[in-house]
Write a structure and sequence with these properties.
Length: 80
């Protein structure tokens, strides 16, 4: 069962639309405006699904995925 979704999108309108849709699906929603912000939010949280925009400032979606796949990041994420 999906409990928590992380939405990563720099477009405030798209981010709000996704959050609104997911809210209606009765899941917990965490939102970030770029990949760097999202990485900071991951520690100590159990995230079931990540909805990721690829084109963002600060850290784009592909950069986020590269960082997310690093052992230190995934170990911290999985330990929660």
């Amino acid at each position: 069962m999906i409990d928590t979704v992380l939405v990563i999108d720099d477009n405030a309108l798209d981010n709000a639309i996704l959050r609104n849709y997911l809210y209606n699906e009765h899941v917990n929603i965490i939102s970030a405006l770029n990949g760097r912000e999202a990485l900071d939010m991951l520690e100590g949280r159990n995230i079931d699904v990540i909805v990721l925009d690829l084109s963002m400032p600060v850290m784009n979606g592909l950069e986020f995925l590269k960082e997310f796949k690093k052992p230190a990041i995934t170990a911290s994420y999985r330990s929660s």
